Amino acid sequence: MNRDANHQLAAVMAEAGASNKGLAKRVREVAQRHGEHVGTTHVAVQRWLDGGGIQRQTAAFVAEALGDKLRRKITPKDLGFPGATPVPAPVVGMSYASSLSETLSTLDSLTHQRPEDGPANEPPLPDSDVHSAALSWLISRPDGLPTDAPAARRVGMRDVAAIRTAAGFFMQLDFQFGGGHAHKAFRHYFREDVLPLLGASFSPKVGDALFKAASEMSQLLAWSAYDSGNHALSDRYMMSTLRLTQASGDRMMGARILTNMSHQANYLGHASRAVMLARASVEGGKGSSTPRAMALFSAHEARALSTAQDHKGAARAMNEAERFFERADSVEDPEWLAYMDEAELIGEFCHCFRDLGQGTQAVRFAERAVALTDPKYARTLGFCRMVLAQSQLINGELEAAVSTAGLAVEEGDALQSARFQRYVGDFQRKVSTYAGNPAVEQFNELIRDAMNRLDDE
Predict the structure, then answer these.
(1) What are the sequence ranges of the domains in the chain?
(2) CB 214 within 8 A of CB 193
(3) Dihedral sign, CA of 268, 280, 221, 340?
(4) Per residue in 47-70, pLDDT tens?
C-alpha cells in the first residue's frame, strides 16, 4: 500500500472477514435492493484500499454491506469515506398482535423481506414489547379457529401433510447449509401455499392440525432469519409466530418459540432477557409439553443462566433438563422435536460449561457432543467443534484448540451460517494474542481461504 492507503476500510474489511471480491459482490447486492445498479468489482475495492476516490452513494452501499456482515451500524466515515445516508427499510411486526387477522397480515408482510435486506442499525425489539408479548401469551386463551367458514377452498389432512413434509425438507436444508440457503423458496412457499389455507374452510380437527403445521413453518422462517444474521426480522417472525400459536392453543410450540427467542437474546448477549424468556417457556410449557420438549426448554434456561454467570441456577436447570430427558421416550413427540436427542442436550450443556468457565467439564461434554452428533446436522456439529476448541483454549491447550477449530472450518457447510461465522470470529480474537504462533497463522490463512471460497459459491 502507498502512503495514502485507506487503513480504515482495510481494518473494517479484515474484521468482517471480507475479501475484495466478496465485498464487491455484496456492494452490488446492496445497490440492487435499493433499486440501483453499480458495477463494483474487486478492482474497484483495491482502488479504494489504495486511497482512490468513491461516489457518495457507493460509499453508502459499502458501509451498509459491511454493516450487514458485522451486524452493527457502519457509516462511510468509519471507512474513511465521505458521509451518505442509507435508505431505511420498513418495519412491521413490532408488537404482539391483538388479533389473528393482524397476525396473518404481518406474516404476509414479513415474507416479502429478505434477510439480507435488513439495515445493520435496525434496533432490536424493546424489552417492554418482549415482556408484554411473553405475558400476553402466558395468560392467553385460544382464539378459536374460524372452522367451516364460507370459502372457495376446503382444506383436508392431505394439505396439512404436504406442509409438514415441506417443513421437514426446509428444516434439513437449514441444519445442513445454514439459514440463508433456501430462504427465498421458503418464504414463497409459506406466502403462496400456507397462508391462504388459514383463511379457507376446514373442520375443527383439520384446522387444529393446519395451524400447528403453519406455526412450525413460521418458526423455521424466524430461525433461518436469525441464522442469516438478521435479528430484527427474526424478532418479528418470532413475535408473530408466538401469536399464531395462541390461535389454536398450541402451548408446546408457543413455549418453543419463547425458547428460540431466549436463544437469540442469549446469542446477542442480552442475558436478562434470555433468562426471562427461557423461564416463560418452561412455565408456559408445563402440563402441555412432552418430557423431551421440557428438556429442551430447561436446557435453554441453563444456557441463559450460564451467560448470566448464575452457577447455582444453571446447575439446577441442567439437572432438570436431564430428569426430563430421562423420560423422553415415554410419550410420542411431534416431528419438529426429532432433532432433540442426546447429542443436542449434551451440546447445550457444553455451551453452559464453556460460558461458566469450567474448561474441564466443557471439554468433556463438547467431545461427547461431537462424537454423538449426526453429520447430517452439519451446522450443529460445527458449533460443537468450535465450543470444543474454545474449551480447549480455556484449558491452555492452544495447538489442540486451533486443530479442532480448523477441522470445524474445513467441513465447510456450516460456514453458510452467520452464527457459525461469529463462533469462528470469536475464536480468532481469542487466539490473536498468539499471533506469532505458526499454528495460529496457519489457522488464520485457512479462514481467509475458506471465506474466499464462500464468496465464489
Answers:
(1) 7-79, 94-249
(2) no
(3) positive
(4) 888 888 788 778 888 988 887 777
How confident is the prediction for the chain on average, in pLDDT?
A: 87
Report the distance separating Cα 318 and Cα 332, nearest Å.
23
Output the CA–CA distances (angstroms, integers) from residue 286 to 118, 193, 280, in the order listed.
Answer: 36, 33, 10
Give the burial class of 443: count Cβ atoms within 10 A of its Cβ; 0-12 exposed, 13-18 middle, 19 or more buried.
buried
Report phi then psi at 382, rounded to 5: -60, -45
Tens digit of pLDDT for each residue in 360-396? 999 999 999 999 998 888 888 899 999 999 999 999 9
Integer Cα distance of 210 and 248 in angstroms: 9
Q: Say what the pTM is.
A: 0.77
How many residues does this entry show for the chain?
457
* Interacting residues of 48 by C-beta distance below 8 A, sequence separation 6+: 6, 9, 54, 62, 81
Query: How many angstroms separate the CA atoms of 40 and 47, rounded?
Result: 11
Rounded CA separation 277/113 (Å): 26
In whole angstroms, give the CA distance from residue 174 to residue 417: 9
| Amino acid identity, position 205 | K
- 402-426 residue pLDDT tens: 999 999 888 755 556 788 888 988 9
Comparing CA positions, the residue from 94, 101, 91, 338 lying closest to residue 216 is 338
